[in-house]
Amino acid sequence: MIRLKNALEKCALETTEALEKYVPESKDVDSLVYEAMRYSLLAGGKRLRPFLVFLSSDIFEVPRYQALACAVAIEMVHTYSLIHDDLPSMDNDDLRRGRPTCHKEFDEATAILAGDALLTMAFQIVSSKESHPDGEIRSAITQELAIAAGAAGMVGGQAMDLAAETSERSFDLDTIVRLQSRKTGALIRFSCEAGAILAGDNGIKRTALRCYADDIGLAFQIADDLLDYEGDESTLGKAAGKDIAAGKATFVGLLGPEIAREKAENLVSSAIARLDIFDHKAELLREVARYIIERKN
Question: Under a CB-based contact definition with an 8 Å cutoff, are residues 252 and 221 in contact?
Answer without folding.
Answer: no
